[in-house]
Amino acid sequence: MAQRMRSSKRYLRAFVSGFFVAVPVTVTFLDRFACVARVEGASMQPFLNPEGGSKCDVVLLNRWSVRNYQVQRGDIVSLLSPKNPQQKIIKRVIGLEGDFIRTLSYKNRFVRVPDGHFWIEGDHHGHSLDSNSFGPVSVGLLHARASHIIWPPKRWQQIKPCLPPNRGPLDTEEEGDEDEL
To answer: Residues 55, 83, 91, 154: which is the catalytic one?
Structure first.
């Protein structure tokens, strides 16, 4: 009986010490490297949540890849909402600092993205609260880049940067043409 008690204490001690090592390591990993997020809503349809309804995609968010605020056009990113800092949103990067963007419904038809900002949009324009509502977004609000769809299993895939048709920065020749009109 005494030996069983010592054995139980040894296992408890090993569990507690393992717990106190595992928790900080896990927290550090989730804070610095990657985490998972459930994508809700229709703003990124048809790429994310194509079936709509109660079926939600789950994505792997790569925090390490945005540590220097380096994103490219077409990346799907997670960021703090400029309207509600308690909420995280997921959108596609359409333009980077210095780009000229033809907006869809913003107060100005054309916008130059200021330094330290980027232009984000949801893929489902009629159902997205994005830069067309609140303008260019500070890179300081950037949280992570979505790198993979991990749920449901039939949709497992790497997310590659791509811009929707007719979205993205204007060409310099096109800018000159617009000024002449």
So the answer is: 91
